[in-house]
Structures are given as structure tokens and as C-alpha cells.
Design brief:
By secondary structure, this protein is an alpha/beta fold. It has ten helices and 13 strands. It binds nicotinamide-adenine-dinucleotide (NAD).
């Protein structure tokens, strides 16, 4: 069975991907420094003989043994988290990525980098294909993440071009679902928490800005296909759901599903906040045969059910 190293394995996508790969019978080595991930996310895997975990900061060290695959998910991902960890975010996307690439190089492992739609910045082209170079403010507050990920992509391609390392880059668009930290600060956990605890829902701007949300089971399947398919060495592929929704529409849907009053508080838009986000997934469809299958309303229902359990257990007064 394949041996895979998942860096950032105790985070939102890492937890879901671990479960998916363990179900396929893979041997999963997970490492995480818990900067934004949580030990409780991976607790349920601890008794699985195919699961191994080590607390580790990839900027300082990586496990030195042979893996067939290395998946790098390690990086704060939400604006709230990366703005509170600016230097750590830049370091994990530079030194951390380099350490994993050296490991991939040494043992001839295939390397998958989780990049982001944020490399497109505030895009001037819709939807965004992989050939679009982006519109990023290199000195704005979000640059720690956007430019960090652009560097991560660049160094990944440098290892591919100059060392022949087998690499693939996934540009992940907004993903949601169970195990996304309720205090993560991103739209869906934020709105879910506010609606479930009777607080006003905070909408930045007038709520007409759009995002495209991909349910996590679809994302995990896309990452898996990008990892295992042959002849994709050096490919950069958008993974996301092109079903574009306005932020206000998301708030309305959450209130409707939970049957709560639409009590909204409007706040100014943060600096450099992208106004539109929608992936062009033609390449993923062609090369991976992948497209998202879970409808937004269905994914939202499943996610809200999970958050209501979490909030009941953790915030019970
Ligand atoms: N969730 C999304 O919508 C989304 C969108 C675009 C890109 N991504 C990318 O996917 C990856 C996973 O995102 P997520 O939503 O699961 O975020 P997350 O914050 O839940 O998970 C990231 C994990 O990386 C760990 N980590 C951070 N720095 C580390 C370090 N130095 N050493 C070891 N572990 C470290 C964190 O503790 C956390 O468990 C990230 O690289 C992110 O940039 C996610």
C-alpha cells in the first residue's frame, strides 16, 4: 500500500484527506505543529495501525524516511489566521516547502503542493484559468499569504525544472465542510457560528462580492486524483466549485436552513478583499476527469449539522 506524508495533517483539509486515504488502505504519516490545526481533529485516527502522527514544524524538521507521496497542506489558510501569523506564514511557504521538496528529491517521492486561488489576488479576469498571472498587491496586508503561496509555487517549479522532482500544484478555491475550525474567521464558519448562537451575521461591504464554495469531499477527491494520476508532472490545476454565490446569498441560505431571523450587521470591506472569485475548472475536467458533485445547499446542510454539534458541545453554558 502507498505510504504518504501529509504536512498540515491536523487541519481542516488534512483531517478530511487523512480519513479518505485511510479508507483506501493507505499508510498515512501526518505531521503538524498545531498552529491552526487541532489535536482533537486527528484523535479518531490514533487507533488505526495505518496512521502515524508526529508533532513537527516543517520549517525546522521533516521525517527522514521514504514516502511514495508527500502532500503539503501546512500553512495558515484563513485571513484571520495568516494575518495573526504573518512571518510564520511566509516561513512555512518558503523554508517549510523547501524542506519537503528536499525530502521528495532525496527519496524520489511525488510532491503535491496545496496552493490557493489567492495567487490570483483581486482578479481582473473571470473565471480564473491557470494561465492567468493574477493581480496581487505585493506589499498589502494579504501579501504574507498571497506572495508566500506564489513563492511556494515558484520554488516547487524550480525543483521540477532543475532537479526533475515530480511535482503537482493544486490551486484550491474556497472549500468548506466538517472540521473547518468554527473560529477560523472564514465566511461559512463565521456565519454558521453567528446564526447558531443568535448573534447578528457580519457582512463585509454590501454582500454583493462573490465566492465559489467547494464541499470538502469533492476537494479531497480532486487532490487524490491530482496526486495519483501519471504524466501530470509539473502541472498546475485549479480545484474548486464554479457555482458562484454572493456573500449575502450565503447568509440568506444559512438563515433559511437554520430557520433563524435574517439579522445582518454591515461592516466595511477589508483592504484588498477580492470582489469576485470563480475557478475555471476546464483543466481539472480534462486532465483529471474531476468536477464537484455536491450541491451547495446539500453541503451547507451537512456542514451546519456538524457546526451545531460542535457548538453544542464546546460552547454549552
Ligand atoms: N480551506 C480552503 O478553503 C483553502 C483554500 C485555498 C488553499 N488552501 C490551502 O490548503 C491548505 C490546508 O488548508 P486548511 O483550510 O486545511 O487550513 P488549516 O489551517 O485548517 O490547516 C493547515 C494546517 O497546517 C498546519 N501548519 C501550519 N504551519 C505549519 C508548520 N510550520 N509545520 C507543520 N504544520 C503546520 C496547521 O497547524 C494546520 O493544521 C493550506 O495550505 C491552504 O493554504 C485552503
Amino acid at each position: 500500500m502507498p505510504k504518504v506524508l501529509i504536512a498540515g495533517g491536523a487541519g481542516f483539509i488534512g483531517t478530511n484527506l487523512t480519513e479518505y486515504l485511510l479508507n483506501k488502505g493507505w499508510e498515512v504519516f501526518s505531521i503538524d505543529n498545531f498552529s491552526t490545526g487541532k489535536p482533537e481533529n486527528i484523535k479518531r485516527f490514533m487507533h488505526d495501525p495505518n496512521f502515524h502522527f508526529e508533532e513537527m514544524d516543517i520549517c525546522k524538521d521533516v521525517p527522514h524516511h521514504k514516502f511514495d507521496y508527500i502532500i503539503n497542506l501546512a500553512s495558515p489558510a484563513s485571513p484571520k489566521k495568516y494575518l495573526s501569523l504573518p512571518v510564520e506564514t511566509m516561513m512555512v511557504n518558503s523554508v517549510g516547502v523547501m524542506n519537503l521538496l528536499n525530502l521528495a528529491d532525496e527519496y524520489k517521492a511525488r510532491f503535491l503542493l496545496a496552493s490557493t486561488s489567492e495567487v490570483y489576488g483581486d482578479p481582473t479576469l473571470h473565471p480564473q484559468p491557470e494561465t492567468y498571472w493574477g493581480n496581487v498587491n505585493p506589499v498589502g496586508p494579504r501579501s504574507v499569504y498571497d506572495e508566500g503561496k506564489r513563492f511556494a509555487e515558484a520554488i516547487t517549479m524550480a525543483y521540477h525544472r532543475y532537479n526533475g522532482t515530480d511535482v503537482r500544484i493544486a490551486r484550491i478555491f474556497n472549500t468548506y465542510g466538517p472540521y473547518m475550525d468554527v473560529e477560523d474567521g472564514r465566511i461559512i464558519p463565521n456565519f454558521a457560528y453567528q446564526a447558531l448562537t443568535g448573534k447578528p451575521i457580519t457582512i463585509y461591504g454590501d454582500g454583493s462580492q462573490t465566492r465559489s464554495f467547494c464541499y470538502v469531499s469533492d476537494m479531497v477527491e480532486g487532490l487524490y486524483l491530482l496526486l495519483i494520476k501519471d504524466n501530470l508532472d509539473g502541472e498546475v490545476i485549479n480545484l474548486g466549485n464554479p457555482d458562484e454565490r454572493s456573500v449575502k446569498e450565503v447568509a440568506d441560505l444559512i438563515c433559511d436552513i437554520l430557520n433563524v431571523e435574517k439579522n445582518y450587521k454591515y461592516l466595511p470591506l477589508p483592504q484588498d478583499d477580492p470582489k469576485r472569485r470563480k475557478p475555471d475548472i476546464t483543466k481539472a475536467k480534462t486532465l483529471l476527469g474531476w468536477y464537484p458533485k455536491v450541491k451547495f445547499e446539500d453541503g451547507l446542510r451537512r456542514t451546519l449539522k456538524w457546526y451545531s454539534e460542535i457548538i453544542k458541545n464546546s460552547y454549552a453554558r
